Amino acid sequence: MIDPHIASAFDRDLEAIQAMLMKMGGLVEASILNGAEALERRDLEMAEAVRAGDKAIDRLEEQVNEEATRVIALRAPTASDLRTVMTVIKISANLERCGDYAKNMAKRTTVLAETPPVGSASVSIRKLAREVQMMLKDALDSYIQRDADLAQQVIERDEDVDQLYNALFRELLTHMMEDPRNITPCMHLHFVAKNCERMGDHVTSIAEQVIYLVTGEMPDDARNKQDETPFMTDEG
Amino acid sequence: MNDMRIIQRTAGMNDIKIHAKGVDVFYGDNHAIKDVSVDIEDKTVTAFIGPSGCGKSTFLRCLNRMNDTIDICRVTGDIRLDDEDIYDKAVDPVQLRAKVGMVFQKPNPFPKSIYDNVAYGPRIHGLARNKADLDEIVEKSLRRGAIWDEVKDRLDAPGTGLSGGQQQRLCIARAVATAPEVLLMDEPCSALDPIATAQVEELIDELRQNYSVVIVTHSMQQAARVSQKTAFFHLGDLVEYGETGKIFTNPDDSRTESYITGRIG
Predict the structure, then answer these.
(1) Whole-model pTM?
(2) So what's the ipTM on this one?
(3) Which residue has the higher pLDDT, B144 or B46?
(4) Topology of domain A4-215, per CATH?
(5) For residue A226, what pLDDT band results from cuts at 50, 70 and 90?
(6) Residue of chain B with shortest Cα separation from A10
(7) What separation in angstroms does the CA of B212 have from each of B44, B102, B188, B205, B223?
(8) Are the Cβ atoms of A5 and B261 closer than 8 angstroms?
(9) Could you say which of 3.40.630.10, 3.40.50.300, 2.60.40.10, 3.40.50.2300 is the CATH number of the domain covering B2-260?
(10) Tens digit of pLDDT for each residue in B158-200?
(11) Which of A129, B51, B189, B205 can pair with B197 through a Cys bridge, CB separation 3.0 to 4.6 Å?
(12) Using the beta-carbon criterion (under 8 Å), do A78 and B250 form an inter-chain contact?
């Protein structure tokens, strides 16, 4: 690792901000996992806990931004220090959005719990959420370890998430065509699936920030998007 | 105009004013500058940064042969101003220093009137044909030094009676009075308060329209604020030289990184 600053308080500030960011990341990971589990098991208590837990994530984001602003004002960070502060701000925004999506999943769970289950969609969604959470875990690990290769792998894995989402989209479309009574739960399930897919995009953005942090340059080409649903019709 | 970024990045788009190649400087046995090559652009502010004793001031002083005044100092290598070797025997150092002006760390006005401080250079270099000419040069220089409005009613007052910041701007006015092409500044703001510093920095930015400015500074924030190109010196080596924004966001060399981020390098 790089040498410590001559001003040791600067190191303490940067470490404190990054510790907050990691705490935030841990909470978001838990929200994603618990949100999906609550959905599959129709566990309203757990869903409520996920909803309530989002407040802590939002508070942490505010704290991270406040502290990062202070560091910019007081320490005038440069080079890798500057990139650290900039990426902390961006990553915290990505995490905050992921937290919101998990919260939304929990909200919809309360509605879905009152409708009959639709096929195995909630199992597939849990698999999708699990995949996103694993990506997030690796993205945060790549941040801590300043590992651009691992971050690049995370970016590439977003394709798997997109494919899982595409499959779910088709599955839900089929259920809706089979029986119009499925439309309400399928619409909610679709939003949940779409939210998971969006979380994958935020995690990808986090991984891109890690590459910027390590190399000083953003990865040039965003990978090919695998989401085909914008072009999909009911003929599938 | 397809570059819509906030900070104009003009670095690298100007002609080369000073070509230095393979420059070594020795003080007796001390090898103070080691094989430094650098191209300084015209109409650009170039900052030299580095820890004390790294050779940045020594190198700056090579650019107008100020090191000639130090007996034990020996300079080798090639330094060209507009393709003319400034160490050529035919070059008169006094003429050279009229072209390559210098401003020092401590404001050092002559113990003369404000007017005579500025008029001194043009007089000895015979730049004015008559009093009206000289008046014009003095006014223009004081305006360039961003101090005209503050002193126009007391040009006969002694220069040493001004405040520190005013004295430094007077010295800058004095330096530009000989119509130099390059202005060297060795820590021009280190004795000034933040307001005077800001005024001098604003002035440096204006001077860039007409001159090539080279500034040595211990304040990295000052280098970042005023310069378009930055050179980092360490132990007599030129470690890294590049666009200022690049140096301060993503330097190539780990020694540069350690220095600018305040780490033990």
Answers:
(1) 0.82
(2) 0.72
(3) B46
(4) Methane Monooxygenase Hydroxylase; Chain G, domain 1 (1.20.58)
(5) low
(6) B262
(7) 5, 12, 16, 11, 15
(8) yes
(9) 3.40.50.300
(10) 999 999 999 999 999 999 999 899 999 999 998 888 888 888 8
(11) B189
(12) no
